[in-house]
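Chain A, query sequence.
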Amino acid sequence: MTLQPYKLSFITVNYNGLEDTRAFLARIDSITFSFSSEVIVIDNGSRQDEYALLKDEFPFITGCYSSANLGFAGGNNIGIRMAQGEFLYFLNNDTLLPLEADSQIMQMLSFFEQHPEAGGITPKIRYMDPPDMIQFAGCTPLTAITLRNKQIGYQEMELGQYEQNSEIPYLHGAAMLIPRHVVQHIGLMPEDFFLYYEELDWCYRINRHYSLFYYAGALVYHKESASTGIDSPFKTYYLTRNRLLFAYRNRVGLTRILSLFYLVLVANTSKMCSFMLNGKWKHVFSIWSGTRAAFKLFKST
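Chain A, predicted structure.
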C-alpha cells in the first residue's frame, strides 16, 4: 500500500446540523492523536454555509460547502475525493468519539495490519442518552427474499456481553473505518439511493472481495434517540423506494423476482393498510410514489 500524507482522514457530512457538528469537532480537537490525521467536513446543502462558520471556529478542518444537498453518499463522496488519508473514518456528525479514541483507533489500525482480508470495521455504537445503552454490536445477514435481519445488541444495556470481535455482513453507517485501497478498488458510495440503504449497498459490494468486522474494543457515541419516533412521509418514501432498489441491485434471478414481489405485494401493501387504518394518507401516498420511483430507477441501474 502506498502511504498517504495522513494516516487517517475523519470524514463527516453536515446538513443544517451546526450544533451537532460543533460538538463533534470540539471532541476531536480535545483528543491528542498519536497518528497523523485530517478532519474533513462537507456541508451538504445547509440553508447557510455552515462550513464557513465551522472553519472559523475550528481552523484545522478542511472541506467545503455544497450548495446542493447531494444525499448521504454524495456528501461522503466529496469527502473521499478530498481525503489524503491511508484510512478513511466515516462518522455521522451527531456522533462523539470517546476520550480514549486515540488508543482505540490505533487498535483498529493494528487489526487491519493483522487481517489483510479486512475491508472495513464498525466499532461498538452506544447511544448518547442513555450512554450505557447499545445501538450496534454487530448484525446478522439479511434474509434473501424479505431483507430482514437482526441488529445485535440493539437497545440492550451494556453489560460487557459483546466484547468479542466478529465478522459481519455490513457496517453501520454512523461509524465506518475503511482502508483507502478498498475504496479505490470498489469505487465510491452509490448515489442513486440519496438517503437510506446506500451504505448497505456499498458494504455488499465491499463484502464480495473483503471481510467486514464489528470491533468490540472501540466505541462511538451516537446522539440518535433510543426512543421510537413517528416516521415522516419523507422517510417512508425513501425507505420504500430504496428497499426495492437494493433488492433489484443485490439479488439475481428467481430470488430477485420473489424479493420484489414480497416487498410490493406483502410488505408495502401491509404498511399501506396500516397507514390507511390510522388515517395517515401522506404515508400511503409515500409508499405508492416510492414504489413507482423504484421501478423507474430499475431501468437506469
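The chain is about 40% helix and 20% strand. The chain has a mean pLDDT of 94.
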